[in-house]
Amino acid sequence: MKPLSQTWPQDRAERYRARGYWQGETFPALLRARAADHPDRTALVWRDQRITYLELNDQARRFGAGLLDLGLTPGDRVLVQLGNTPDFFRAAFGLFAAGLIPVYALPAHRRTEVEHLLTRSEARAMIIPDKADGFDYRGLADELAGAVPTLRHVIVAGEAGPTHHAMIGIAADPARLPADPDPQAVAFSQISGGSTGLSKLIPRTHDDYIYSLRESARICGLGPESVYMAVLPVAHNFTMSSPGTFGAFYAGATVVLCPSPVPDAAFPLIAKEGVTITALVPPLALLWLDAAQKMQPDLSSLQVLQVGGAKFLPESARRVRPVLGCTLQQVFGMAEGLVNYTRLDDDEEVIVTTQGRPISPDDEILVLDDDGQPVPDGVPGHLLTRGPYTISAYHDEPAANARSFEDGYYRTGDIVARQPSGHLVVQGRAGDHINRAGEKISAEEVEDHLLAHPDVFDAVVVSIPDAHLGERICAFVKPRDGAAPRPLDIRKFMRARQIAAFKIPDEIRLIDSFGTTAVGKISRRHLRQQLRTEVLADEAKSTSETETT
C-alpha cells in the first residue's frame, strides 16, 4: 500500500507552529473535548432526531472500535459515500478514532468515479447507504467487490445484503481504540475537481485542516449558540470546513441537516431550528431569492448566507440583504487548501463585488501573467498560492504534481484580479475545467465518454457562462460518416456508462468538422477557446435580435 503523506518544508512548518496556526489538535480529540465540555448540547439535528455531543462521540467511538474488530487496521483507507444524515458523522469520527483514513466520495458518484477512487486509494472498505434518491448503492458495491482487489468489506447504513455488514451492528468497546494520531499525519483524503481526467486524492492532515476550520469558524462568527444548516452535500469541502459542519463542531454549535435544498424544505427548517448560518451555491441562492419574494417565509434567525462554489454575480449578490434580511458572505476556496471570505464587517460593495480575501496572514498569493510575471493589482492573472493549509502534492500523481506545484506553490487554475485590500475577484478558469453549479468537471473526461459512443468520431467540450449554473457544459460532436446520433441518444449512452449526472452535457451540438492548426493538428485548448467564443457570439447575436424585435 502506497503511503499517504503531506509535508511542508521545515522552515515553513516551524513558522506555522510558532504563529499558532498548527496547535497539535486532532479530530478524535476535537469531538472528545466537545463531548466532555458540553455533553448535553445538541450536536446534530436530522428529521426527528436530536443527537448530543456526548451521544455522537460515544456512537462514533464504538463504531470505530467495531471496524477494528472487522480486521481493519490503523492506516487503512475506507471510502465513505454517504449523504446528509447522522451516519456520515458517525462514520467519519469513528474512522478518525480508529486511526482509519476516510476517502470522501459524493453521493452523485457512480461506478466510474467510485471504482477509480477505491483503486487509487487502495481502500479496504466502503461505507454506503442502502438506497438514496432512487439509486441502490448495494448493487454498485457488489459489482465493485469483484473489480477492486483491495476491497474487503462493504458496510451499509440501512438494510444490508447477505454479503454486507450493517452499520448499525458494528460496535465494540472503545477501550481498544488506538492513541490519538500524530497531528501531522493524514486525517483523510478529499477529491479534486479533476482538471484532467478523473479526480485526484488530496491528503489533508489534522493540523492543517483543523487550522482552516478553526479560523473559518472565527471569521464567520460561530459560537456555541450558532446553528449551522447543511444544505449542500456534507462531503464537500465547502460544507465540511468553510466553516461547515466541522467548523460548527469546533465552535460547539448545532448542525442541522437539511433533507432537501429546495425552499419548501429549507425555509420551514430555518424557522423551526433558529438557523443562523447556511451555505449555498449560486444556482440555489437564486432559487431561494426568487422563492423568498413569493413565499415571505420567516427567516428572522438567519444572520449569514454564504455563497460559494462558483462566482456569484454582483447583480444577484445585491439582492441577498434586502430579500433575505441577512448578511451575504462570499466564499472562494478549493479542496487543495486556500479559502477566501468576505468578512462580515466588510463594506457592502466589497461583499457583493469580490470573492473575499484569504484566511491566513501566511497565505502567500501570486497573481501572474502567462509568462509567469507578477501583474499589478486590478489586472487579471493566474492564481498561485501556498500556506499553512494548502497542500504541496496530490497522492501518487507525479504528472499532475509536476503541472500543479512549483516551489511549494499550488497553481489553482483560476484567473483572479487582486484588489489593493487583498480581496480577490474571480474572473474564471485558466484551463479546460468546467465549474457547473460548484461541481468542477474535467472537459477531457467528458470528451472521453463521448468518444466511446460508436457513432461519435470526435468531440470537444467547452464551458459556457450560465446565469443559473455559473457555467454549463456544451459538447461539440462530430459524427462518424453516415451516422447522426441524436443528442438525446448520446445522453442516454453517457448515463449508461454510470457517471455522475452532473457530467452529462447540458447542450450537444452536432458539427461537420473541427478547425486545425497550420500543420494539420488540432490544438484542443485553442479549439475549446474558439468554439466557446462562437457560442457566446451566437448567444449575443440572438439576444440583440430579440431586443430589436
Automatic annotation (TrEMBL):
<protein>
    <submittedName>
        <fullName>2,3-dihydroxybenzoate-AMP ligase</fullName>
        <ecNumber>2.7.7.58</ecNumber>
    </submittedName>
</protein>
<keyword id="KW-0436">Ligase</keyword>
<keyword id="KW-0548">Nucleotidyltransferase</keyword>
<dbReference type="InterPro" id="IPR045851">
    <property type="entry name" value="AMP-bd_C_sf"/>
</dbReference>
<dbReference type="Pfam" id="PF00501">
    <property type="entry name" value="AMP-binding"/>
</dbReference>
<feature type="domain" description="AMP-binding enzyme C-terminal">
    <location>
        <begin position="445"/>
        <end position="521"/>
    </location>
</feature>
<feature type="domain" description="AMP-dependent synthetase/ligase">
    <location>
        <begin position="32"/>
        <end position="394"/>
    </location>
</feature>
<dbReference type="GO" id="GO:0016877">
    <property type="term" value="F:ligase activity, forming carbon-sulfur bonds"/>
</dbReference>
<dbReference type="Pfam" id="PF13193">
    <property type="entry name" value="AMP-binding_C"/>
</dbReference>
<dbReference type="InterPro" id="IPR025110">
    <property type="entry name" value="AMP-bd_C"/>
</dbReference>
<dbReference type="InterPro" id="IPR050237">
    <property type="entry name" value="ATP-dep_AMP-bd_enzyme"/>
</dbReference>
<dbReference type="GO" id="GO:0016779">
    <property type="term" value="F:nucleotidyltransferase activity"/>
</dbReference>
<keyword id="KW-0808">Transferase</keyword>
<dbReference type="InterPro" id="IPR000873">
    <property type="entry name" value="AMP-dep_synth/lig_dom"/>
</dbReference>
